[in-house]
């Protein structure tokens, strides 16, 4: 007999300290009083007293101990959770990267296995951990977030709840020592917790959940009302490192439009990829998979012609490319790559997005 897939509820916020874990525990306690079998699979309270009080009385699945390089480390015990098989398990910090040589690289992959076992999951994450927002978050805050989850995790969740507080309230919590220890407060206020950062992050969190709700509403729209325009996005990547930024921007565009994503790499037949370049393209391909896109690889000398041909074959409506790296002299003598591409697609009702990639 096949087990029914567990349901996933994600508590998302604009920054640490908004109350995601507190709210998750609060909801779990209500369910426990109603007779639901609830356990804590992984909890990170950061010694916040109010959160610790909410966790009091809930069963905790012990973490597993892993010895590595003369150190004893701990991780969530996914196998123990599945063997215990509660109705609901609470799992903090969805974007966490597991200890090297763990069964899964990321905690969200453990969550996927638990869901497949038929166990419901409540989890928490901050908006800055969403893969497609990585470049935008870095631009806003100056911080490159290393721990990320694919956008599909949010899309596939049965429920996404935004835990919203004003930037002023979050600053008050920080100053009161409710988020970090006193020696970290001033540094946080000068960096990630600057007012302008919090305002922008709050807007992103609210917009993300609004988009998710809007997409769920669109599922009930009759087909006859939605078939008129089917957007399809094509991102053109190369061996340049900025391709990852382009890919995320394109994925974000596809997500907003509820459109299929295609990623194209055109290799010059005479150019042998270095190890670094080959690894970079593999990274692009993996990122494309994370965004549930289709990766296309073609060998040809004429990049613009290939892009135009693929766009026609796949009925593309939006093309995303980076700024041309040609020198001014080459552009004057041969015409720019962008101009060539525009000439090839101008009659085909395709929008061309040229993304600045020099910062």
From TrEMBL:
The keyword Kinase applies. Residues 231-344 form the UspA domain. Residues 4-213 form the Signal transduction histidine kinase osmosensitive K+ channel sensor N-terminal domain. GO terms for cellular component: cytoplasm; plasma membrane. Keywords: Kinase, Transferase, Two-component regulatory system. It comes from the Bacteria. The keyword Flavoprotein does not apply. Gene3D superfamilies: HUPs, P-loop containing nucleotide triphosphate hydrolases. One of its GO terms (molecular function) is phosphorelay sensor kinase activity. It holds the Pfam family KdpD. PANTHER family: SENSOR PROTEIN KDPD. This is Sensor histidine kinase KdpD. It comes from Cyanobacterium aponinum 0216.
């Amino acid at each position: 007999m096949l087990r029914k897939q567990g349901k996933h509820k994600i508590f998302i916020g604009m920054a640490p300290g908004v109350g995601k874990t507190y709210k998750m525990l609060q909801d779990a306690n209500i369910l426990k009083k109603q007779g639901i079998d609830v356990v804590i699979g992984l909890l990170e309270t950061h010694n916040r007293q109010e959160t610790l009080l909410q966790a009091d009385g809930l069963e905790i699945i012990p973490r597993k101990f892993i010895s590595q390089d003369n150190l004893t480390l701990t991780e969530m015990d996914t196998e123990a959770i599945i063997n215990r098989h509660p109705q609901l398990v609470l799992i903090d910090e969805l974007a966490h990267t597991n200890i090297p040589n763990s069964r899964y690289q990321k905690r969200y992959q453990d969550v996927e296995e638990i869901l497949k076992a038929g166990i419901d999951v409540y989890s928490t994450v901050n908006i800055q951990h969403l893969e497609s927002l990585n470049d935008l978050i870095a631009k806003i805050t100056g911080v490159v977030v290393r721990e990320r989850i694919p956008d599909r995790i949010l899309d596939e969740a049965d429920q996404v709840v935004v835990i919203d507080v004003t930037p002023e309230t979050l600053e008050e919590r920080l100053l009161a020592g409710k988020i970090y220890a006193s020696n970290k407060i001033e540094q946080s206020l000068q960096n990630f917790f600057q007012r302008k950062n919090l305002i922008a992050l709050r807007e992103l969190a609210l917009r993300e959940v609004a988009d998710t709700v809007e997409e769920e509403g669109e599922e009930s729209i009759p087909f006859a009302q939605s078939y008129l325009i089917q957007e399809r996005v094509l991102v053109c990547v190369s061996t340049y490192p900025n391709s990852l930024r382009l890919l995320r921007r394109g994925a974000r565009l596809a997500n907003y439009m509820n459109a299929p994503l295609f990623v194209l790499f055109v290799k010059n037949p005479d150019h042998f990829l270095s190890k670094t370049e080959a690894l970079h393209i593999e990274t692009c391909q993996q990122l494309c998979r994370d965004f549930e896109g289709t990766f296309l690889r073609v060998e040809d000398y004429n990049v613009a012609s290939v892009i135009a041909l693929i766009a026609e074959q796949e009925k593309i409506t939006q093309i995303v490319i980076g700024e041309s790296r040609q020198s001014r002299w080459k552009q004057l003598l041969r015409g720019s790559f962008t101009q060539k591409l525009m000439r090839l697609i101008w009659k085909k009702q395709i929008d061309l997005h040229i993304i600045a990639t020099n910062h």
